[in-house]
Design brief:
With about 130 residues, this protein is of the alpha+beta class. It has 4 helices and 4 strands. Helix content is about 40%, strand content about 20%.
Length: about 130
């Protein structure tokens, strides 16, 4: 019986510590918003709020569209790096697309209905 309580106590401790490290990471985030252009191909980096690998999958999959060459979102830094053909799609369209699937970014707040339908672990603290 004591072993059962020790395991439960240990799991609670680990959970509380992981929550604490997440919030301290959140406080250290830098807001990023920059774009470089080379021969009509743009590379933009900006902050997109989210939490985990499922967030990464949703954010990156939302950008599988004409004109977007690649996208890579980092769950630790909350920074996305997108390479795209600026003659086919604008940064504004990309930012709106990310917001449409529920994720706040530097310019747009995520769609409330999409946000509320995200998995519980993907529901980040909104700014």
């Amino acid at each position: 019986m004591k072993t059962k309580y020790a395991i439960i106590g240990g799991l609670i401790f680990i959970f509380l510590m992981s929550c604490e490290s997440t919030s301290s990471t959140e406080n250290k985030l830098k807001i990023v918003n920059k774009t470089l252009v080379n021969n009509g191909i743009s590379t933009s980096t900006f902050t997109v709020w989210g939490n985990c690998g499922m967030c990464e999958e949703t954010i990156e999959n939302s950008l599988k569209m004409k004109g977007v060459k690649s996208s890579d979102w980092n769950s630790d830094t909350k920074i996305i790096k997108i390479t795209y053909d600026s003659s086919k799609i604008t940064l504004d369209q990309i930012e709106k697309k990310i917001a449409s699937v529920g994720y706040d970014n530097v310019k747009y707040k995520g769609d409330d209905k999409a946000y509320s339908s995200l998995h519980e672990c993907c529901q980040y603290d909104r700014k």
